[in-house]
Amino acid sequence: MVEDINMVNDEFIRKNSLVSWGIIGVTSFLLLYVFQDAVSSFLHQWEREEYSHAYMIPVICAFFVWQKKNLLETIDFEGSWRGVAVTLIGFFLYILGLLSAIHSIMHYAVVITIIGIAWSYYGNKAFKLVAVPFLILLFMVPLPGFLYESLSGHLQLLSSEIGVAVIRLFGISVYLEGNVIDLGVYQLQVVEACNGLRYLFPLVTLSFIAAYMYQEKVWKRLVIFLSAVPITVLMNSFRIGIIGVLVEYWGLSMAEGFLHDFEGWIVFMACIAVLFLEMWLLAKLSTEKRPFIEVFGLDLPDPANPELPVRERKNSIQFYTVVAIVVVAALALSLFPEREDIVPQRKTFAEFPLEIDGRVSNKQVMEKIYTDSLNFDDYLLTNYIKQGTDTDFVNVYIAYYDIQRADKVPHSPKACIPGGGWKIASMTKKRVADSDISGVPLEVNRLIIQKGEFKQLVYYWFQQRGRIITDEYLMKWYLFSDAMTMKRTDGALIRLTTMLEPGQDIEMADERLEAFAKEFSPIISEYVPQ
Description:
Structural class: alpha+beta
Number of helices: 20
Mean pLDDT: 84
Oligomer: single chain
Low-confidence stretches: 1-8, 190-194
Helix content: 40-55%
Shape: flat
Number of domains: 3
């Protein structure tokens, strides 16, 4: 691989002393102690299939640093105060994450701290050689929950739409309703349609690593990295298309067998094959003809020159500074009591009134695949039906969380509604007349959604520790601040929905939801604490 000879002084080899290795080992152990909550959260998140590759990322980082061994041995590690500053920023973010119980902040803080310590140790010149390998550590961090849900939802819809287009190319009749693909005798459900997308994160990580190793121009490396998302989506769409063709010509049993076999590593391996084919084609565009193995720089460091004298490397004052910071952090953690979230007492939704606004409740049970995905602690899903009618009803959905975390957050209806095949025709904010919750005026997001000729009116808001919030990002801010000041992260998503009959005035639907909300509002505080 290309080396900067201006940075090299090869008159002698620099080696760490046993004392230096001991300091590095003790510092690493203390870091694990300080970051024990984040490490535990990492291990829990990495059990999910989309993040199962993360176990290998620290090993890959270490390998790429080791690749630079010969060059690093010719450079003095001068230390860097910039690295010390980055380390302090990392610890500050970790404290914020710890106090707020927001694991995403803690996760990124761990990586920032590691990068800062490495920068402090190596110094500016040497760190330039290993900066990218340390940046790879960012790919072991799970995406924040709200970002994951938004990205996943959009990619699922796109994958389903392309897959249906593939099926229709063969002249096969198919109906797409959100992420439910209706093939007549067979329905490919939303969860099945997403299985191929679970390899998006491993492929993005692999494409970044491949781009780093790819010894070509920068624009070609960028193409390799940025192509991971479209490759994954297109391969999953291809998988959906094949299922449709199998159902049409070879029957349901063949399709189900293929679905089982083709939802796992085959999709991922096919994506990798496409990625390497892309790299090979880009290499062919180069005017300098080289074997592909040379273009893909997987070279190992040569043995050190035995004729060169060995000098013991001296650690910088900057490195000793970050070691002192780690020691102080470990002592502080051992002296301060562990923070615990407060979970307020509340009534469960099993006790929720069976009649509101003259309407009778008809409770529904959500399927396990959805309860597992939504990950709430309690929920209510029911239709409050006006007696003597089938269409005059108000659907109530409440998802309640005792403690909100990166993987335990309400899913925004804006992201979920399109997954059911509905399109958002209008979205505004609305102050509901004569309705308040514990003295706080009720303001909601008002959505008109449409599927064909059918329309529904939706009111939704986030009920969070005495606040009525309509903005998802503002909800995140209050989650952060309340976790620190109140030691609480409990809250709920509340959604009220009513169907419009063909030709019905939207004002009638508004009146229906407003009347229901007026009776509903005084009740909810017993079930979603203030």
